[in-house]
């Protein structure tokens, strides 16, 4: 027995000194850490999604643009990651082809999206990115303007409920609108969720997103090994069945519908993928479903966040709103319901600056992650293999070195923004893994926001509503995004 105990002690001491030696040679030691719990590291500082933004900003402001985030005791941490708002490190990561793998927390999406473009990597990702790129060609996007407009008209009617009320929470209205848009553009299916139809699908999307977020904040739900012990494991299983069955049914319906005209001018993303697959036999049914599900997930909440925060900024800045309205009048006179075309949206130059400035202050995705699969040298520092690197876009966008008076809402910043500092402003990421749908998102936001500006004067609530930012799958406000809407004469 004594020999066994002694052997275990020797083994533990050997492991300890081996890890200490590795830790000593670890290039991460060159980065500051900031105050942390001696045993739990930074884990107690980020117990909810509302802590993430504030704590990350404090660390960046007080200790440098790149800091260590540690989980576990300092003497022997379980996990050490990097949090960065440094444009040089951000450019190094995003502009190259060595660090393309997403961080481990993206794997919480795998039960829904499987190997979709958002979370896949390696040769599989490269092949699918190449296949999917034509689906976002300019000529394809032009045809979706009609969808943006028709779905936006329904939103205007729903927002009329808020006229004359002291407060209107935009997020529920706008989220249903963008979900209607992505259903029709991604799957070619009118869901009419704004009118209360297909509520089971809407609820499944909401519940699935909630569980994904809560998994990243819960020790018990963190791994699949223990997640099955939680009620949410079985809830997620049921909700995913609803989501997957719906997509499968739409795909099978389109495959079996021989009357579909493949030469129809406006095709949904699903139609295009089916056409590519039939022409080249390059995507299986499961692969198509995974990519359509990815469009559904990534294409509605992000855009809803961008629209809501832009309207919130317009409410706070009447002079900016006045200029945005004047641009609409210059284009369409006093017509509130003009027939909008793609060139019209392109001509909304000032509104585009407004949206870009809003996405600077409130980036729809505030943090993105990368994972090193090999030792990587940057600026004389060795970033070891298996390191999570969190690119803190929210902090990057509020750096006074890149954006003077960073807390102020100034759309004119983008009047002469030449892109020379392209890695200081990345609301849609950048490089080879940048958002494939960013042009789609900008067109949709322009269409919806311009329509609301033409119909309503947007004003702050009294007292002014202060958003409570939460870093979830996208940037949200836990207490809503509330404004006052007044019908324009």
From TrEMBL:
The keyword Zinc-finger does not apply. Keywords: Endoplasmic reticulum, Heme, Iron, Metal-binding, Microsome, Monooxygenase, Oxidoreductase, Signal. The keyword Oxidoreductase applies. It comes from the Eukaryota. SUPFAM superfamilies: Cytochrome P450. It holds the Pfam family p450. GO terms for cellular component: endoplasmic reticulum membrane. It is found in: Endoplasmic reticulum membrane; Microsome membrane. Its main location: endoplasmic reticulum. It is a peripheral membrane protein. Heme binds at residue 435. Residues 1-22 form the signal peptide. Its cofactor is heme. One of its GO terms (molecular function) is heme binding. Belongs to the cytochrome P450 family. This is Cytochrome P450. It comes from Zophobas morio. The lineage of its organism: Eukaryota, Metazoa, Ecdysozoa, Arthropoda, Hexapoda.
């Amino acid at each position: 027995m004594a020999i066994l105990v002694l052997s275990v002690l020797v083994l533990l001491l050997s492991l300890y000194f081996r890890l200490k030696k590795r830790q000593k040679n670890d290039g991460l030691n060159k980065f500051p850490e900031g105050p942390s719990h001696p045993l739990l590291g930074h884990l107690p500082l980020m117990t909810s999604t509302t802590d993430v933004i504030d704590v990350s900003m404090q660390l960046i402001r007080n200790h440098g643009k790149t800091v260590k985030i540690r989980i576990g005791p300092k003497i022997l941490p379980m996990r050490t990651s990097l949090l960065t708002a440094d444009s040089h490190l951000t450019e190094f990561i995003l502009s190259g082809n060595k660090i393309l793998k997403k961080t481990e927390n993206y794997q919480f999406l795998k039960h829904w999206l499987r190997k979709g473009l958002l979370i896949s990597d390696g040769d599989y990702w490269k092949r699918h990115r190449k296949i999917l790129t034509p689906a976002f060609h300019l000529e394809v996007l032009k045809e979706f303007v009609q969808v943006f407009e028709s779905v936006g008209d329904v939103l205007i009617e729903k927002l009329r409920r808020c006229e004359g009320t002291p407060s209107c929470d935009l997020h529920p209205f706008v989220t249903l609108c963008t979900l209607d848009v992505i259903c029709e553009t991604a799957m070619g299916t009118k869901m009419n969720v704004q009118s209360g139809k297909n509520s089971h699908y809407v609820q499944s999307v909401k519940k699935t997103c909630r569980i994904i977020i809560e998994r990243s904040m819960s020790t018990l739900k963190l791994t699949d090994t223990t997640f099955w012990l939680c009620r949410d494991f079985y809830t997620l299983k049921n909700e995913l069945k609803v989501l997957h069955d719906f997509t499968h049914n739409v795909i099978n319906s389109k495959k079996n519908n021989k009357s579909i005209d493949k030469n129809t001018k406006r095709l949904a993303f699903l139609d295009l993928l089916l056409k590519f697959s039939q022409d080249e036999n390059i995507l299986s049914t499961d692969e198509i479903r995974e990519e359509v599900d990815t469009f559904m997930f990534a294409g509605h909440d992000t855009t809803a966040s961008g629209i809501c925060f832009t309207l919130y900024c317009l409410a706070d800045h009447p002079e900016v709103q006045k200029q945005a309205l004047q641009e609409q009048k210059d284009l369409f006179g006093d017509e509130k319901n003009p027939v909008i075309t793609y060139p019209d949206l392109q001509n909304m130059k000032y509104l585009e600056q407004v949206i870009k400035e809003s996405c600077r202050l409130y980036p729809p995705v505030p943090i993105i992650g990368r994972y090193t699969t090999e030792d990587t040298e940057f600026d004389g520092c060795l970033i070891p293999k298996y390191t999570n690197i969190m690119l803190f876009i929210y902090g990057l966008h509020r750096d006074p070195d890149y954006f003077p008076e960073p807390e102020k809402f100034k759309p004119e910043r983008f009047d002469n923004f030449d892109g020379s500092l392209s890695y200081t402003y990345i609301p849609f990421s950048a490089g080879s893994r940048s958002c494939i749908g960013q042009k789609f998102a900008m067109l949709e936001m322009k269409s919806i926001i311009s329509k609301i500006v033409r119909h309503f004067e947007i004003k702050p609530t009294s007292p002014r509503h202060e958003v409570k930012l939460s870093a979830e799958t996208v940037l949200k406000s836990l207490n809503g995004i509330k404004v006052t809407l007044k019908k324009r004469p």
